[in-house]
Design goal:
Number of helices: 1
Largest sheet: 4 strands, antiparallel
Structural class: alpha+beta
Strand content: 25-35%
Radius of gyration: 13 Å
Oligomer: single chain
Strand order of the largest sheet: 7-4-3-9
Length: 94
């Protein structure tokens, strides 16, 4: 995983994770990082997310964005779920 994330900086410690199992039995972890103010735009917050265990293509994406930390966190979770569902890698709860 790269040490920095699309304009957000270090991913840091996840604030939330969900552990899943891929169709081949391997672990899949969806993680959301801490929301933080966008250093380039006033009034915008960014929230990184990542998916480990289903291939490099789906391991990172654009951060969630919002007008506050709550909205950025919701956005990151929505994007991560959509990426996981669209990845073509079925998963189930661990």
């Amino acid at each position: 995983m790269p040490p920095t994330f699309d304009g957000v900086g270090d991913f840091g410690e996840p604030v939330a994770t969900r552990e899943l199992v891929s169709e081949d039995g391997g672990p899949v972890v969806v993680a959301v990082g801490a929301p933080r103010p966008d250093p380039a735009r006033d009034g915008i917050w960014l929230c990184p997310w990542r998916i480990d265990g289903i291939g490099e293509k789906w391991s990172t994406g654009n951060p969630g964005r919002g007008t506050d930390s709550w909205q950025a966190l919701e956005s990151a979770m929505t994007i991560a779920v959509a990426a996981l569902e669209g990845s073509g890698h079925p998963t189930r709860p661990a």
